[in-house]
Amino acid sequence: MMRLNDAMSSISAGIISQLPLLFGRSIEVVVFCYVHKHYKIAELNWNSPITWWIGFLGVDLGYYCLHRAGHEINLFWAAHQVHHSSQDYNLSTALRQSIFQRYCSWMFYAPLALFLPPQVYMVHVQFNLLYQYWIHTELIDTLGPLEWIMNTPSHHRVHHGRNPYCIDKNYAGTLIIWDRLFGTFQAEEREVSYGLVHPLQTWNPFNVQLCHFKWIWLRFNQEKTILDKLSTIFKGPGWHKGTPRLGKHEELPEVEYPVKLYDNHLPYWYNIYVFAHFLILIVAYTELVQFKTVN
């Protein structure tokens, strides 16, 4: 079930995440092309099927590493938590993205530039993201034998869960084999409650983008030693003094059922008014993108 307020918040976050592309090229592509041009150690034939298979596996493994770092390094989580902040799970959730994540993702793909042609990388990274769009759904249960190999809606529902058994699991982009290999796989066992461990109480897309950075800044200033200050930035979001790098799993709060979703009950006419302005914003953004493409 898609709620208007949540869907608008998710799509707004998606629009915000794309704003830097109106003023320049994607930093991931720029860095990849630069590394390939100046530091490549081999030149794979872009027209070879083997190259495309290497690209597929390399990009998917790179995404796994990026995604895992986004959950296990607090600074990266400050960006990635935007995607997890919705208490709903539907196709609009897939669009709920951070404006900052692209500025840390390049480093996980740059090693591929040492041998992989840029055009192969660009095709695979786009298809990798496109594949992940459709798995944001509760309408599909399980997919039989494909559950052993592919990332599926069931696997990704676990990833978006805030139940303790779901935390830091199923980082896969396309292939779930990486989670099975590296010990981060978790099957869907019982009802999943979505969102952050401590749910946000706002629809404001700017607050959603910035809230965890503010929290890190407060924690950073509260810590007394330089080691603890750095740990606040580079260890997991659940870390605090005296705990392991990722925090203590037993400190995660259990989900109370029935789950009460954050919501606002507004007059019908007010929803129509806001939705109309939202449509105008989308049209304006589309025109800006077309203008940038032409220029």
TrEMBL record:
It comes from the Eukaryota. GO terms for biological process: lipid biosynthetic process; membrane lipid metabolic process. Pfam families: FA_hydroxylase (PF04116). Keywords: Lipid metabolism, Membrane, Oxidoreductase, Transmembrane, Transmembrane helix. InterPro entries: Fatty_acid_hydroxylase, Sterol_desaturase/TMEM195. GO terms for cellular component: endoplasmic reticulum; membrane. GO terms for molecular function: glyceryl-ether monooxygenase activity; iron ion binding. Residues 53-184 form the Fatty acid hydroxylase domain. It is found in: Endomembrane system. It is a multi-pass membrane protein. The chain crosses the membrane at residues 106-124, 268-289. This is DgyrCDS13429. It comes from Dimorphilus gyrociliatus.
